[in-house]
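CO-FOLDING WORKSHEET

Operator: S.A.
Ligand of interest: S-adenosylmethionine
Run index: 146
Mode: holo prediction, single chain
Checklist:
[x] sequence pasted
[x] SMILES validated
[ ] output reviewed
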Amino acid sequence: MNPARIRIIAVGKVRKGWVGEGVETYRKRLPGLEIVELRDGGMAREAEAISAELRGGEQLVALCEEGQSYDSLAFAKALEGSGSERLAFVIGGADGLDPALKGRAHWRLSLSPMTFPHELARLLLLEQLYRASSIQQGGPYHRAGA
Ligand SMILES: C[S@@+](CC[C@H](N)C(=O)[O-])C[C@H]1O[C@@H](n2cnc3c(N)ncnc32)[C@H](O)[C@@H]1O
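OUTPUT RECEIVED:
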């Protein structure tokens, strides 16, 4: 997996230091992956800002509880299957993502049926992206069931 074809577009800042540390740890392990932070300000405005941020040819992956869920091996495979497509993983703010935006997403991805604060969703997504990259490379990071 080439992390440079992945962007995370996230509404809201990471305010908790310990979450920020985790985000930075995994971001460094995924060189080239870009994180774009957008201001929070209501679902409709946020949806406009997200749409304006998306690049032509980039596939929108909306993070939402009700999306498709995977185990880590299947997620790694799904990412591999997306070939060289450029992916924008979009994380909503406190109000969540606009339903119309989710409706036009190429892929709706759930990290769990439970709801997480956006900061934790960012950290969990990064960790799973790193895990997927390690699985694809046959690295020792992923030990299923361990
Ligand atoms: C606090 S949550 C928003 C909750 C909001 N009440 C809702 O119904 O969407 C903030 C963002 O984190 C992400 N998120 C939270 N839990 C998630 C999960 N289990 N799977 C995927 N994304 C999640 C989503 O992008 C969501 O828009």
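REVIEW:
The mean pLDDT is 96.
The chain is about 40% helix and 20% strand.
[x] output reviewed
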